[in-house]
Design a protein that fits this description.
about 180 residues, alpha/beta, globular, three-stranded parallel beta sheet
Length: about 180
């Protein structure tokens, strides 16, 4: 197995885990260059996408990530304060704790993360769907319309979107393979 080592801000922002999946590569996030909110949001994106594709990832928590309960559906980071590890009882979380599926004109989101009340959401208006899909990559909230900002604020209250400074990133993993048994999620 090869390792894809991501060390710089530019590498982090341009990294596409789907390529690592094709190359059967383990992803190692070892960037120290910057702890900007944009870089933190990209680190969350890369970890989320690695979980989506079932790619092994070794990463450390960026210091600007503060609410770890929101990330407990992603692979466990290598280093964090021992008190924070309670959110990751297993190195690899159960697939499907927080996921979304896209249908024609709507998005379904299911959240059963530990420590958060189970919930299901359906986004079915164009602004909500488009904004959520744009949030698959970090999005500067200062560039959003009032309607889009309202969507981001509501999804952040529901812990579906993580806001890091002026950036927001969607947390649910896109369901790309259905587990067996099918009712496992």
């Amino acid at each position: 197995m090869n390792d894809a080592l991501v060390q710089t801000s530019e590498e982090l922002q341009n990294f596409e885990p789907s390529q690592a999946m094709k190359d059967r590569t383990r992803v190692c996030l070892s960037w120290q260059e910057s702890e900007s909110h944009l870089d933190c949001a990209h680190a969350v994106r890369v970890a989320r996408e690695c979980a989506r594709f079932g790619i092994e990832i070794q990463w450390t928590l960026p210091e600007c990530v503060t609410d770890l309960r929101l990330l407990a559906h992603m692979p466990r980071p290598l280093s964090a304060h021992p008190d924070l590890m309670k959110y990751w009882p297993e190195p690899v979380p159960r697939y499907g704790d927080l996921y979304y599926r896209v249908g024609p004109g709507f998005v379904l989101i299911r959240d059963v993360r530990a420590g958060i009340a189970p919930a299901r959401f359906t986004l079915d208006d164009a602004i909500s769907v488009d904004t959520f899909l744009e949030l698959q990559r970090p999005l500067a909230t200062s560039t959003l319309s009032a309607a889009q900002q309202g969507v981001v604020d509501e999804l952040a209250r529901e812990r579906i979107v993580y806001q890091l400074g002026d950036f927001a990133i969607a947390l649910p993993i896109q369901m790309t393979r259905w587990p067996v048994p099918f009712n496992g999620v």
